[in-house]
Amino acid sequence: MRVVVMGCGRVGAALAAELDAAGHEVVVIDRDPAAFARLGERFRGRTITGQGFDRAVLTDAGLVGADAFAAVSSGDNSNIIAARVARETFGVDRVIARIYDAGRAEVYERLGIPTVTTVPWATGRLLRHITAGTGPVVWRDQTDSVSLVALEAPPAWVGVAVDRLAAAVGGRAAAVTRFGTCRIPDTDTLVQADDVLHLALPSDAVRGLDDQLQRGPSDA
Questions:
Q1: What share of the chain is helix, strand, coil (3-state, %, to 5)?
Q2: What is the distance between the alpha carbons of residues 22 and 127, in angstroms, rounded to a whole number?
Q3: What pLDDT is stored for residue 125 in this prediction?
């Protein structure tokens, strides 16, 4: 999928890097060309210097036909203007804006534009919103034997060991993202609500993954 990210601060750079690492086509817009240094040397996407709500800049970024747009600059006004232009002018269905003022965020949610505020796990919510419906697989080996999946913690498994959940689907726990921090779980790590679980498992197990996790630990 093609994603345009406006703003290359801490959140925007982290979001763009994660999407790029997962194999998506990513374009990042920022007024300050020095901000692109946050993307790191491994970033394979495009960068464009300019105002993210400028229609010419958005056109140059490939927003026509893009799958998603994230407005995550440091300014509420810039983010919401850009989000509305992406939705209303370019017809992008999957649009999200970062809003610092929680009161204003509620207003824009009513307009149908999802928002995130300055919570530490903003990047996680942005990533889940943008990639929703594209499936949990973020990487496959060249022989399509092993897949790495990223999924939100299933409610039925909250309070259960992460290793037990991974074993129930025939895989192993690679990492857990919690409150914006990713780490390798140990044997005592329990699943918490809002965790993002990264599991390595046989590719042929991906198709039935949702059904297995919905059944919960008592049936595993």
A1: 35, 25, 40
A2: 11
A3: 62
